[in-house]
Amino acid sequence: MTDMDAAQLLDRIRRARDWARRREQESITTYAPSDDSSESFAATLDGVIHRVVADVLDEILEPSSEERPTGRS
Q1: What is the pTM of this model?
Q2: What is the DSSP code (8-state) at residue 33?
Q3: What is the block-wise mean pLDDT of the chain (73 residues), using blocks of 10 residues?
């Protein structure tokens, strides 16, 4: 991996987030929600995965003030 400064890292994170958001939208529009096929299920799962990735990258870019439970005691 090459050395990069903070601005380059933030740019890469933003591009990855934007890519994940696009993939989420593509998954949503691929199959109708009422379709019970395995392809529809896979597209839904793919969309959820990309939404989670985009949400995590959003949190890295702009941390929220709300605390989230970690599940640790």
Answers
A1: 0.71
A2: T
A3: 82 96 86 70 88 94 74 56
